[in-house]
Write a structure and sequence with these properties.
Structural class: alpha+beta
Number of helices: 12
Distance between the termini: 55 Å
Mean pLDDT: 92
Number of strands: 13
Length: 341
């Protein structure tokens, strides 16, 4: 007779409907940020992660104006200078393996540069304290001729340092193109191949280092041409990398950013090295350290504008990218931080 109450309880539970989980209001608030985007113009895409798991992703606008293809969370973008953290990570991993040292001079790894290369260290390059001029302001971005990392080296051979290495901070894309060559001369592999084998594949990241990437999900970036109704595709034949070139979705970048919490790649030794700001200019290994302890970086190339932020406790990641030169991923990231942090 004791089994009857138990049986009745089981039957009662079986008759209950599944408990409905209320939608996260933060997702709705995030969706609302895209409400005013024009569906017929280039737009923005973004993602939020908690401990590396995407908890929200959204997009608005068009990825391709001619084809009428909408921008979605699966659209691939060029992350531009956000790529620098991967180049720095490659150097730090090679140092961890005993292949090189941040205190090595640039001259040790890259030949055919002026005498100043013997005064510049890899550490100076990582933290933008080398004094090497930025090639972006020397080469002509509108030139139809393809330029490579070797072309950057050639033009730098005619330059002088802007000051003594280590004495001041000046952001220069040249530093990271040169670091790419350091990695290649130290390993015998191109930086894109090395990153794929040692970073992207081990972590299962859907990212690719290719400045000429042209996959089917790639969004087109547009210059506004000074008119709200007139957009032109932004094109360039530049093919150098190290300072840029990483392509992927905001969600794919979220998965990588969680490494700053877990140290899954390289362990705590690498994690500590990635966050070092030796000169107090708030620039660590390809990332900026904000006053509140969060880490961030932005990127701008061919009218792709991007920004990421990782909370000070390293649990929340926010990434936004726009495929228009008048986009504002910084504001979008700030708005998402206000919702999710």
């Amino acid at each position: 007779m004791r089994a009857l109450p138990l049986l009745l309880a089981v039957l009662a539970l079986a008759g209950c409907s599944a408990v409905e989980v209320a939608p996260d209001p933060r997702a709705g608030a995030s969706d609302a940020l895209f409400a005013d985007f024009d569906a017929d113009e280039p737009g923005c895409t973004a993602a939020v992660g908690i401990d590396g798991e995407v908890v929200w992703a959204g997009a608005a606008g068009l990825a391709d104006l001619d084809a009428g293809t909408p921008l979605t969370p699966d659209s691939v973008v060029d992350f531009a200078s956000i790529s620098k953290q991967f180049t720095a990570t490659a150097v730090l991993l090679l140092e961890q393996q005993g292949v090189l040292s941040q205190d090595d001079t640039l001259a040790r790894w890259v030949p055919d540069l002026p005498d100043w290369a013997s005064r510049v260290t890899l550490r100076n390059l990582i933290h933008h304290t080398s004094g090497i001029p930025d090639y972006v302001y020397i080469l002509d971005a509108g030139d139809d001729e393809v330029t490579t990392n070797a072309d950057v080296n050639a033009v730098l051979a005619d330059q002088e340092l802007g000051g003594d290495p280590g004495s001041y901070f000046e952001y220069s894309n040249s530093n990271y193109v040169l670091l790419a060559e350091v990695v290649e001369n130290a390993t015998g592999m191109t930086l894109p191949d090395w990153l794929d084998e040692n970073v992207f594949t081990p972590l299962g990241l859907e990212l690719v280092d290719d400045p000429a990437y042209d996959g089917p999900e790639l969004a087109v970036s547009y210059d506004e041409d000074g008119s709200d109704d007139d957009f032109s595709p932004e094109l360039s034949s530049w093919a150098q990398y190290g300072d840029g070139g990483i392509h992927g979705t905001p969600s794919a970048l979220v998965a990588w950013l969680d490494n700053y919490r877990t140290g899954a790649l390289g362990g705590q030794e690498l994690l500590k090295a990635q966050l070092v700001d030796p000169d107090g200019w708030s620039y660590a290994a390809g990332i900026e350290i904000a006053a509140d302890g969060s880490i961030e970086h932005d990127g701008s190339w061919l009218a792709f504008l991007s920004k990421f932020s990782v909370s000070a406790d390293r649990h929340t990641e926010v990434v936004a990218s726009c495929n228009r030169d008048d986009g504002d991923p910084d504001a979008l990231v700030d708005q998402l931080k206000a919702i999710w942090y």
